[in-house]
Every structure is written in C-alpha cells, then in structure tokens.
Design a protein that fits this description.
heteropentamer, A alpha+beta (316), B mainly alpha (357), C alpha/beta (417), D mainly alpha (126), E alpha/beta (245), A: 316 residues, alpha+beta, Ribosomal Protein S5, domain 2, 3 domains, two-stranded antiparallel ribbon, E: 245 residues, alpha/beta, Rossmann fold, three-stranded antiparallel beta sheet, 7 helices, 43% helix, globular, disordered N terminus, mitochondrion (chain E), structural constituent of ribosome (chain E), Small ribosomal subunit protein uS2m (chain E), Ribosomal_uS2_flav_dom_sf (chain E), ribonucleoprotein (chain E)
C-alpha cells in the first residue's frame, strides 16, 4: 500500500518535471526559430519541429514531435486509499467505482423525475412539450468516450445497461428537468452541420450564380459546378449524362439529391469525374451534387441517408 | 512458512557471529605462535589500502546550462547529427504500441492499475533515441543561420544584368534551357550515374523555321516534341560525362535545324498515304466531285432539269466557290475532326453543291 | 433484349384493356397540310401546341395527316397513324424490336414526325431526279430514332409509288449468315444465296403491287446456265421469281435486279429508294473465318451481296435516292474503347467515306422538349404511363432527367411508371 | 482449519484462533473483529457441517379457517382490497368477523347463509 | 497444521493485520483509557443498539414472511416458526434476538474503524443499499460479483488492498437459485458476515445470521435503517471516547 501511495506521489512529481521541461523547451525552440517565446503556440511548435527534424516516416505518429506532457503521457488514476488503507470511494470494491456511481445517481435521477411527474399529474399539469429534449439532435457517447470520461474500462454489457438506463431517463416525459445531467453523456450533432456550411456563390461573366464542389467515393473523384436558374442540363466529362452513365441505376444515383432537394430541372450541372468504376463515379457525383446545390437549398444534414460516406454503398 | 524463514535467517546471523568469534580467537592464537607464511596467501605486514580515485560527479548535459536567450547559431554552427545533450528541446520520437496479450475481463483492472503499462504508449524521449539520429535535421539552417549566411555571402554577389528583369525577357534572350543535376551521395563512389544526364529544352517558335522546315523538324524529333506546348525536349545521357552530353545536345540541335531546312529529292514523291493531313485535291473526294459535276453539266443541257447554278456559270466547275467551300468542309472534317458543327457545315456545302436553290 | 421485352408483354394486356374504354378520348387536331418553305419555318420556329398533361384529352400529340407525303415541319413532334398494311409492307423489319409489342399494346401503330425525316423529305422534294441519286446519311447515338426515321422515309417514298429496296440491318450479312459458298461469277467473292433470296423476297413483298403494275422489263439477256436463261424483255418480276426459285443463283439475280432497277430508274420509269440500316457494316471485318488461316476473317467487301449493294449506293444512276444510317452497333467494338463516336466519318472509315462522299449527313438528335412532351403525352394517352406521379410535371422532369430525352431510354424509363 | 481457505471446516473464529495459537499470526496482528467476536460470540456457531433438523415445521391453522374455506368455495372472488390502508379488511375477513358475531348470538339455522344475508344487508356485495 | 496453511491467504491476513496494527494499538489505548470507566467488550450493550429493534416493527415490516415451502433450505428449519398454507413463517422471537446480536457486533466493528461492505444482489433494492452504505461512510458492492474480488484482490485491484472487516448481506442469494459468491469468499478470507437469511437461504457460512424476509422493500428499508444506526452509533461512540481521552 505504501508503495502504491509513493508511486502515485512520484508520478505527480514526474509530471511536474516534464511540464516544466516542456515550458523551457518551448522557449528554447522559439529562440532557435527567432520567434517571440511568449506567443509561441503548439501549432508553431509543430511547424518548427517539422522543419528542424523532417521525417518521411509513413506513420505520422512515429515522426518527431514536441507535445505537452499531458498529451503524451497517459492519464493515471490518483491514489485510491488513505493512509489507513480505507478506500476513498464507497463503490471501490466494485472495481469500477465511477461507473457504478454514475449508474446509482442515474437511478435516483429517474426516481426524482417519476416523483415530479406524479406531483404534476396530481396538480393536473402536463409535461411541457416545448422544453422536451430533441433526441435526434444528439447521440449517446460511444463506449470509448464513456470510458475516457470515467477513466474506467467497461464491458459491453455494462455499456448496454448504461444506455438502457439513460434511454429510460431521456424518454421520460419531463426529462428536460434533468437536461444538464443527461447532456453530459450525449454528443450534440448540430456541431457537425455547422461545420459543413453552405459555400459562397460565385458569379460568372454573365452574372449567373454557381457553386463549385469536389467529392470522392471509393477511388472516384468528382468536380462539380452547379449553376442555379438552369433548365436541368447536365454535362459530365463534356458529354451527356446518358453517354457517361449508360446504366439507369447510376443516373438515378445522380438524380437522387436533386430530387431530394427539389431542384430537378432547375439547376444546371457541369461535372468532371475521374477514376473508379461507373457506380463509384455516380456515387461521387451524387455526394457532390448534394452538398452545395444552390443557394435556394437549405443544409441537408437532417436526413440520415445523406451522410457523406466514402465506402458504404448508398443502398447498402 | 514466513516464520520459518525468519528462524532460518536468525540462525544464519547467529552462525556468522559465531564464526567471527572463532576467527578472532584464531587470530589471537596467531600472535602467540610463529606464523606459517605462505606467500601470496596470507597477509604479511600492514596492508596498504589501495587509493581509489574519487568518482567525479557526472556533469549534467549541456542543455541544462543553456540560457533561454542564447545564440543558437554558435551552439549548432554546421550540419551535424542530432545530439540529445546539445538540443534543449524535449523532443520525442517513435511509436510504442500497447499490446494486451490474453486480454480478458479479469485483466481489465490491469488496464488502469498495473505498473507494467506505465511506460506503454509513450513515445521515447530524445535520450539515446536512435530514430532522431537517423533522420536529417535542419538545426543548422534556422532563420538566424540563414540571415548570417546571407550577410556573409553578400559581398560576393554581383548585380543582376539589366534587361533580364522578367522571366519572359530571359526566355526571349536565352531560348535554350539546359537542365542538369548534381548529386551528393554518401557511398563508396563519388559518381552518380544520374549526374551525366542533360536535358535541353527549347520552344520551336523561337527557331526560325518555315512550314516545310518545321514539319520536317517535327518529324525528325518524333515524340520529343510536345505539340500542345510547342516545346522540344532533348534528354541526353549517352555519353559518360555531363560536358560531353551537353556538347552533343547543342550539336544535335544545330544539326536538326540545318537538316530541316534541306529539301531532298525524294520529298516530291510523297503519296496520299504519306500525307500527314487530308488534302482534298489528292483524294477520292475530288474524283467523285468531278464525276458528279460532269454528269450535272451534261444533264443541264435539258432545260427542265434543275441544276445548281454554279455548274453552268463556270467552265472549270472544281474552281467554283461551292465546290471549294465543300472541299474546305471535307478537309475540315478530316483534319480537325468531326463534330456536329463540322458535319452541319459539310451538309450545307453538299446541299449547295448538289441541290438547286 | 429478352429481359427488356418481358415487362412490356406483361404491360400490354392491361394497356389494351384500358384503351378500349378510353378510345373516345383520343383527340386529334388537324395541323394543316401542304408544303411550306422549309428554311423559313426552320428560322422562325414553330409555336408549341397547347399541352397540359394533368387534364386528359387536351394534349395534342397526334396528327390526322396519315399520308407521309403531306408531312411538313408543321407536323413536327406529332404522331401519325401508320396503317397496318403499311407496317406489313415497309416496316415489318428494321425497327427496334421493342416497338412491335408496343404497337400491339397500343392497339395501333404510330410514328412520330421528326425533324430529320422532314428535312430529308424537303430535300427529296427539291431534288431533281435526272441528276445522280443523292445519298442521305442518318447518324445519331444509339436509341435516337435513326431506324424510325428511315421507316418514316420509306413510308414517305412508298406512298409516292417508289420502289423501295430495304436492308434492315446490314451487319446481319456478315455475322449470322448460315450458308456461304464461293462465287461462281467472280472469283474470290463469297455468295450468300439464302440472304440474297431473302432480300429478293423482301423486294417482292415490299413492292409487289407496284412492280406488277409497272411491268418492268429486263434490258438484256441473262444466261444462268445452259437451260436457264432470262431473255431480254422479260418481266422483272419473273427475274425475281427465278432468283427465289433457284436460290443457288439468288446472289447473281440480286446483282441483275439491282442493275435493272438502276437502269429503269435512270430512264425515268420508276423511282427507287435504297434504304440500308447500319451501312457502316459494309466496311467492316466479317465474322467468317478464312479456310487457309484461322486467324483471318473475310472482309465485308468480299461478300457478293455487299458488292451489289455498293453498286446501288454508287451515284452513277439517276431517278432515286439512297438513305442510309450509320450505327455504332454495326461496327465491331473494341472493349471499353473510349474513342467511340457515332459520327459518320468515324464509323465509315476512310474507305467508306470516300465511297459515299458526297452525301448529306442528317443528324438524328434526341427528343427536343416539344417532342419529349409529345411522346409522354402519347404514352399517357395510350395509358402506357399508369403511375399517378407520371402524369405530373415533376414526374416528367424526372423521366426526362433519367432518359436524357433519348427516345429509347425514355421508353425504357417510362416502362417503370 | 486456520490459515487455510477451506471455509467449510470450523468457523472464521476458530480458524483465526488456531492461527494465533500456532503462532502463525501474532497476537497484535489479529483481525479487529476477533476480540468482538470473542466477547459476543454468535448464538449458533456458524459451522458448515451441522445437523439438519428432521422435524418439519408445524402447520399454522386457526379455527376460523373453516369459515374461510367455506367462503372461498362459495364465493371465489376475494373482492377489492385497498392495500395502502392497513385497516382495510378483505371481504373474507369481514365475513369471518360477521360469522363469529352471528355465531355468538344464534345457534340455530344456517349461520353461513345468515352471515351472507347480513353482509348483503350492509351493502357488501359478495 | 502449519504445513496445511495456504501461504497466500496467510500473507493476506498478515498484511491486513499489519495494516491494522496501528489501529489496534490505537484502540487498545482507547481501551486502556476507558478501562478505568468501562470496557466496551465487557459491556453487554455498549452502544445501546439492542433497544433499536422492536418485534412489532419487524412484524409490521413483514420480516416474518418467508418463501414457499418448496424453496425452503433445510438449515433454516430452526428459525422457522411454522408453515401457513404453504408459506414459511419465520420465528420473529429468534430474529429479534439475532438482530440484536448482529447490531451489537456491527457497532463494535464500526467502533474499531473496520471496513464494512454492504452486499446485495436484489435488484429492486440495490439503490437503497448503496445509498445507505454511502450515508454511513461505508462501502457497498451490489453489482455483478467478479470471482476473486476478495480472494485475489491484489491482482484484481492492481495493488495490495485492505479487505473489508465485515460483510453485511441484505440478501445472500445472487440469483434465485445461487448463493452469492461473496459468502464463500468472505468465509475464506476470514471476514465475518452479517446476513439477512430468508427461508430459502443457506445460513451455515454466515457468522451472524438474521432470519428475515429479504425481498420486501419495507423490510429491507428497516434492516438498512437498523444497520445504519448501529454503524453510526459505533462511530459516534468512537469519537466520544477519543475526545474523552
């Protein structure tokens, strides 16, 4: 036990040393590169290291780097016992105290929700539909994410029970009362749709607006220009759609996004596709015709079918 | 069992004590009696303790004593292999894979607790890290180094010649571009076979060639000529030395130029198959046209016949405008390539030629 | 091809049933007749007939003008009804195989009047037939309607009492012929008596009443064998009958008939239309292996029939016209050759081009907006399109997108609606 | 016994005692519960190898069980019973109470039916 | 006898004991100081826990209700009062006495700063048990039991670990058919156990068995209340005694 405690202490000291060494190294590097040491960011460090010690190793992880010790050295748990050997945590003997603490808390959260609902029913009130948590806007944390959060390794059954319990909580009519608790374990999807913002419109000499996009599926690549205020004219590699895609399935692939966004016959498409086979070309085009389309179209991230996918078939 | 160990340990200590006592008693006995001296076996006289050199303290690596605002160019003046002690950066390189053998439920605890996993997954530091020594480094070419180099080189620089300010001007005055490479190889030989190669580039438009000469030039150089850019590229590597290759290249260029201006006797014997372009007057098309116009001319004798006007106007029908335009359309179709536009043009010309307006 | 036909047959039953109830719905509008200045019309553009797909019965997609000789640019994009006898006579072969079940399903045979056909008709009207025969070349990508245009033109000429000689698909001659014998007439040529006899019988069926009324005579004496002789002044039909009875001599009879027809046409007795589909197949390698070397094939030029047909395609005669099509399907395709094209110079090759030059190439494009809408109007009218969405504007847009308005593709896409 | 992991031999207490007695465990190192258990031993020694009682437990029966049995045969429905209210009696219990009440007062006639009638009169539907 | 010792278990015992040696010396000093007044071990009810239980409470909380006859464990016969229409009724007289004994023991262990581990696998009452354990500053393990958690603890926890000094089972069954593995593991590791044993449970390895209904929430709540009070009383007394000294 003593050895255990000493080890924990030694680790803390070791980390302290590493961090101070990193800070000094950072100032040295700034000096070497002739930069201002106070405003030398991690990005600058990476750039400088890449310049000073270039490595062509395929695995980027294996190249030289200078990172903050917290990013390099895996986190370790703090000491778990006091000097008498009494564990700090009431669930210590379960070996996964954080996880079971969470499960225990979740049970009482659910119970409190039930009680609250009973009270509301007795008062004749109804759950506020406006406040309801939109389940589609976020997803549960994945198992590795939960493990990272709790610093404990979970079995599949345990993760399943976690999901079951939390699903019961979120599906409760007044789950919004515990939104902050629930949302700790959910990842919001809206961030994703924010990233893929609609590209700006470009105007050609005639003043006609268009957008440009690139896309890929399997080994195919597609470069697309979409003109708004069109008549549904499609050119692929300088030829007709029919010449490029003799199979109707491929043409349907290309059509699906236009159909979905109701722009069929309203935009002109000029595309260049290369590499791959006919179906992957159509797939590459489909994704591209999709993502920007024209300014008339809202972002299309709501539909799960339109998630960009380079490998899995659209119908698969 | 542990207590048994204790006991045995205790007895051991006791035994050793007893042994010491016995020895001391023996030594007492030695003083009383004359000693049997076996040289090299037992002690004679006072033993002089061997003087050991005091261990010098290990000097901390140089990086520890470096001031943060030092002049790095003095620390690392020239190219050199990575030295961990002279580089004051906590660099890490390498990738260590964490590998759990027989990973099972019972080992899950180990994942976060075991000592063995303590160093797992951490890239090794710079101390004794061979990987850092293998890769090249540019610690001798930092911005400060370059500034110093430039300052030192400045006095040897001359002014840029006037009139060659832009690339276009350079191209104009020096149309021939010669590319060669030098190689420094760390191996048993100083020579690198690639160093002898010389590449000469020139744009054909910068040579003074008429259409025949240009045609011949292009035929002579074959695929070394890029029709899209109009550039000639000569790769020369048949001689062992770069100089020889360069001289040969220049010779070759002038020989090509001279040769392309010559017109040989056999060049007049060119047939249709030798033509690189479709020439209407040499082809079947002309015969067909001639035949057809002759028939039309004959038919024109009958006044009810609707013959295109041009047939009657001119004596030499083939020289008339519709036929010439038709000929141009056919040539266009063959030489430029057919598309809807050229076919449309061809159609119009044929209609003009065959149908009365 | 069979897989394509199957759903059609399935659909034909229900389509027929529906047609009986809706036959009174067929509205047709008189679009006017008479010749109009071709160029003028081309320039000013023609107003679209009123079309509203949602309201049935109002769509104008057909014309009452069933006489093709009266067709002008004003009928462009409209369907006209072809009499069953005309189908039997001129279009029994040569159209896309899917179109025949479609005719049965629709309970009528209609062809669309399209611009390339009108263009050639105008040329034919304008041409002087004392001048060498003009050769027209239809070209366009697969499924664009070259054969239908050719059929329309045959109907056009046939209705004006021309003698029609039709080769429905030239490459058939050098791919699927069962019987091949060395020619006795000229060494080094290959005779295909069965194919020649077939051509003769087609000539008879196509022009049967006409040939009898014209009562054409032969210009010279033909000696087939010691006993079999065709005298000068015999009826041409007799010569043809002889070829049909003595199949052995059919290739030579074919040559004689062609010669006779050319002479008659030149002398103004009759007008002759030479219609050959897939003419570029005549400058191709055949699939027939030479006996001396297994790796060498006969060239189509070595076939007697091809040689005779080439005689016909020559412009050394007057009083007729040739209409040919060039088709990608008629050449032997290299696998995945990206350089394929449907243009005549590419498909004919230098030799073929030189032989046929000068000809009038006429492009058969995909449907224009007007034609495509007219086509779908017609399909809707015939209850071919049954899905409610197929009747809406959005459904049409989708069909147009998927088919790129290519007639064959549009038909294939419309099968699914 | 002591020190071994054979939990079925002796008890926890006797095994530690054995260890202490043999000296394998020093007296100072004894478990902290040892003194407590020595002072307050469990009333039954928690031995694994103990004898089974052969005698089955008695049946618990009451005289009024007869009435209950009759009631159950006549009216199978137990009725509605408010479990939250500890004072709420089941219909069966009400019947038994009534039966006894009637039994005390009268000895003639069919008491069972009389009870049923009495309860009906009180508005309790059987 | 010494030869038959399992060296590993002995090592555990030694480690545990060495860990506690300091505590023991502390407690012994307490003892010494209080000897002048009173020795807790000599006092019959030093923590005044015996009056916590009342038979009527046990009855009202349905502690007497056992399982059906078919599931009866023969070793529970002495604690069974009788059989009412196929259901075993536990003898509350005995339960009352045994509960007092157990509470006294628990309080003493808590007084000596022992680690008390609450164990239950009765799914409905797990949160209650965990909550009670947390409230009295002790430990609970109500989740799936990994074999060797007590017997192989240094490997399982990655370090030498102090094992609990007392296990309190609110239900000795893991599933309805199987006994909780911790019962045997605790007995192996010299850890005494206090357990609520229903008529279907095996009381033999339990040091201080309490015959009682282990399924009804109100009964479990009652047990937890009593255990908690006993532990808190023990701890309180420890503070008082330390202050007196």
């Amino acid at each position: 036990m003593r050895a255990y405690l000493e080890r924990a202490k030694a680790h803390d000291a070791f980390m302290q040393g590493e961090i101070s060494e990193y800070e000094i190294g950072k100032r040295h590097l700034a000096n070497i590169m002739g930069a201002d040491p106070d405003n030398f960011s991690q990005e600058d460090i990476d750039k400088a290291v890449e310049y000073l010690l270039p490595s062509g190793l395929f695995d980027k992880e294996a190249r030289p780097k200078m990172k903050h010790p917290h990013d390099v050295i895996p986190k370790r748990k703090a000491a778990e016992f006091d000097v008498d050997g009494r564990p700090f945590h009431t669930y210590f003997y379960t070996a996964k105290p954080q996880f079971f603490k969470l499960m225990h808390d979740a049970v009482f959260v659910l119970e409190s929700l039930k009680k609250e609902e009973d009270k509301m029913l007795r008062r004749g009130e109804e759950a506020n539909a406006d406040k309801k948590i939109i389940i589609g806007a976020s997803v549960w944390l994945t198992k590795p994410a939960v493990e990272e959060k709790l610093q404990e390794k979970l079995s599949d059954e345990e993760y399943d029970s976690f999901i079951r319990l939390f699903t019961r909580i979120i599906e409760h009519p007044i789950s919004y009362a515990e939104e902050t608790f629930i949302m700790q374990y959910r990842r919001v999807l809206s961030a994703e749709s924010m990233i893929s913002s609609i590209p700006e419109l470009i105007y050609d000499e005639a003043g006609r607006p268009y957008q440009e996009a690139e896309g890929a599926r399997k080994t195919s690549k597609a470069y697309v220009k979409i003109w708004s205020q069109g008549s549904g004219h499609v050119t692929v590699n300088g030829t007709d759609l029919l010449d490029c895609f003799p199979e109707i399935l491929d043409r349907e692939q290309v059509m699906s996004p236009l159909h979905f966004t109701n722009t069929l016959g309203r935009v002109d498409i000029e595309a260049r596709v290369e590499g791959g086979g006919h179906s992957s070309r159509a797939g590459a085009l489909r994704e591209e015709a999709l993502s920007p389309t024209s300014s008339e179209i809202p972002p299309l991230r709501v539909s799960p079918r339109i998630i960009k996918n380079n490998n899995v078939s659209f119908f698969g | 069992m542990a207590s048994a160990d204790q006991i045995s340990h205790e007895s051991m200590v006791n035994q050793s004590l007893r042994f010491k006592m016995a020895r001391s008693s023996v030594s007492c006995k030695y003083s009383e009696f004359s000693m049997v001296v076996i040289p090299g076996h037992n002690h004679t006289g006072d033993s002089v303790e061997r003087r050991r050199r005091p261990e010098l303290p290990v000097i901390p690596p140089r990086e520890k004593s470096m001031p943060i605002d030092q002049d790095w160019t003095t620390v690392w003046p020239t190219a050199s292999t990575f030295k961990w002690s002279a580089v004051p950066l906590p660099i890490r390189q390498g990738r260590v894979f964490v590998c759990f053998k027989n990973f099972s439920e019972s080992n899950i605890f180990n994942y976060f607790h075991s000592q063995k996993a303590e160093q797992d997954g951490i890239p090794p530091g710079k101390y004794g890290n061979l990987e850092l020594m293998k890769i090249p480094n540019f610690l001798h070419l930092t911005p400060n180094h370059i500034k110093k180099h430039c300052a030192a080189l400045k006095e040897f620089c001359t002014e840029w010649p006037e009139g060659l300010e832009t690339d276009e001007k350079c191209k104009k005055h020096f149309p021939v571009e010669v590319i060669s490479s030098d190689y420094i190889v760390d191996s048993i030989s100083l020579r690198d076979p690639r160093a002898r190669t010389v590449c000469i580039k020139i744009n054909l438009s910068s040579l003074d060639l008429d259409s025949h000469a240009k045609d011949k030039f292009i035929r002579l150089v074959g695929d070394r000529y890029n029709a899209d850019t109009g550039e000639l590229t000569l790769e020369l590597d048949r001689c062992p030395m770069k100089k020889q290759n360069h001289d040969y290249g220049i010779y070759l260029l002038s020989a090509l130029f001279k040769e392309s201006w010559k017109t040989e006797g056999w060049e007049s014997e060119k047939t249709v198959d030798d033509m690189e372009m479709y020439v209407w007057s040499m082809n079947e098309s002309k015969k067909n046209t001639q035949q057809i116009t002759e028939v039309m001319k004959k038919a024109a004798e009958n006044p009810s016949c609707k013959v295109p006007e041009y047939v009657l106007k001119s004596e030499n029908v083939l020289e008339t405008e519709p036929v010439q335009e038709y000929a141009a359309a056919v040539e266009d179709l063959h030489n430029v390539g057919e598309d809807l536009h050229s076919l449309e043009k061809y159609k119009e010309q044929v209609k003009k030629m065959l149908l009365a307006q | 091809m069979f897989s394509i036909v199957r759903p059609v047959l399935r659909r034909s039953a229900c389509a027929c049933r529906l047609i009986t109830s809706s036959s009174s719905n067929n509205s047709s509008t008189e679009q006017g007749s008479g010749t109009i200045n071709f160029n003028e019309l081309f320039q000013k553009g023609i107003e679209n007939p009123i079309r509203n797909p949602v309201k049935k019965g109002l769509a104008v997609c057909r014309t009452n003008q069933t006489d093709p000789s009266q067709h002008t640019i004003r009928h462009e994009g409209l369907y006209y009804r072809v009499a069953p006898e005309a189908i039997q006579r001129w279009m029994k072969e040569g159209l896309h195989p899917d179109i025949y079940p479609l005719f049965r399903a629709f309970n009528e045979s209609c062809l669309m009047v399209r611009r390339p056909a009108i263009e050639i008709m105008e040329c034919m009207r304008a041409a002087d037939y004392s001048l060498p025969a003009i050769r027209y070349m239809l070209y366009g990508r697969a499924g664009s309607g070259k054969s239908s245009t050719l059929a329309h033109l045959m109907h056009f000429c046939g209705s004006q009492d021309w003698v029609i000689t039709h080769v429905p698909w030239a490459p058939v001659l050098h791919r699927y012929s069962k019987e091949r014998v060395p020619s006795t007439f000229k060494e080094g040529r290959i005779d295909q008596p069965a194919d020649a006899a077939k051509w003769l019988s087609r000539l008879m069926t196509t022009n049967d009443p006409l040939l009898k009324t014209l009562n054409l005579k032969t210009h010279r004496k033909y000696i087939w064998s010691r006993r079999e002789v065709t005298e000068e002044g015999d009826a041409l039909t007799e010569l043809i009958d002889f070829g049909l009875q003595r199949v052995k001599y059919a290739p030579d009879v074919m040559g004689a008939v062609i010669r006779e027809l050319k002479l008659h046409a030149s002398s103004g007795n009759v007008k002759v239309l030479v219609a050959i589909d897939g003419v570029n197949g005549m400058w191709e390698q055949t699939r027939y292996i030479r006996e001396e070397s297994r790796h060498k094939f006969f060239h189509a030029q070595e076939l007697t029939i091809v040689q005779h047909l080439m005689e016909f395609l020559k412009n050394d005669w007057t009083g007729g016209a040739s209409v040919c099509t060039v088709d990608e399907g008629a050449t032997i395709k290299e696998m995945n050759d990206p350089l394929t094209s449907y243009m005549p110079r590419f498909l004919l090759g230098q030799k073929g081009f030189d032989f046929l030059d000068p000809f009038i190439p006429v492009h058969v494009p995909d449907y224009s907006d007007k034609e495509a809408n007219s086509c779908l109007d017609y399909y809707t009218d015939r209850k071919w399109i049954q899905h409610p969405a197929g009747l809406t504007e959005a459904g049409r847009t989708e069909m147009f997108f998927l088919s790129c308005k290519n007639p064959l593709e549009l038909y294939k896409v419309s099968r699914r609606w | 016994m002591a020190g071994s992991r054979a939990e079925k031999i002796g008890t926890v207490f006797t095994r530690v005692t054995g260890l202490l007695r043999s000296g394998a465990l020093k007296h100072d190192d004894r478990p902290l519960w040892y003194d407590v258990m020595a002072a307050f031993p469990p009333s039954t020694e928690p031995k694994y190898d103990r004898l089974k009682l052969q005698q089955p437990p008695r049946n618990i029966l009451y005289p009024e069980d007869n009435i209950r049995a009759k009631f159950s045969m006549a009216y199978s429905s137990p009725g509605v019973y408010d479990m939250r209210n500890p004072n709420d009696k089941s219909i069966c219990q009400k019947f038994v109470d009534k039966y006894r009440e009637i039994e005390k007062s009268t000895t003639e006639g069919d008491i069972f039916e009389a009870t049923a009638k009495a309860l009906e009169a009180e508005g309790i539907h059987l | 006898m010494l030869k038959r010792l399992s060296s590993q278990s002995l090592r555990y015992l030694q480690r545990q004991c060495s860990l506690q040696s300091r505590l023991c010396s502390q407690t012994s000093s307490i003892e010494e100081s209080t000897q002048t007044s009173i020795n807790p071990l000599e006092h019959d009810d030093y923590f005044d826990v015996k009056r916590l239980t009342k038979k009527i409470d046990l009855f009202n909380n349905r502690v007497h209700l056992g399982h059906k006859v078919g599931t009866r464990n023969p070793y529970m016969l002495p604690y069974i009062f009788g059989n009412r229409l196929g259901v075993d009724i536990l003898d509350l007289d005995q339960t009352h006495e045994l509960m007092k004994e157990a509470l006294n023991f628990i309080a003493h262990v808590a007084y000596r700063d022992g680690i008390i581990l609450f164990i239950s696998r009765h799914l409905h009452t797990i949160p209650l048990v965990e909550k009670a354990a947390e409230e009295c500053g002790e430990y609970s393990h109500c989740r799936q039991w990994m074999t060797g958690t007590l017997t192989n603890s240094s490997v399982k926890f990655g370090a030498v670990t102090r094992l609990p000094d007392l296990c309190i089972f609110l239900s000795t069954q893991d599933t309805v058919f199987e006994q909780h593995a911790a019962v045997i593991e605790a007995a192996k590791m010299y850890i005494p156990s206090v357990a609520v044993v229903d008529s279907a449970c095996d009381p033999r390895l339990i040091t201080y068995p309490i015959p009682g209904n282990d399924d009804t929430p109100c009964a479990v709540e009652l047990y937890l209340k009593l255990f908690k009070e006993a532990i808190l009383k023990g701890k309180q007394q420890r503070m008082l005694d330390a202050n007196q000294k």
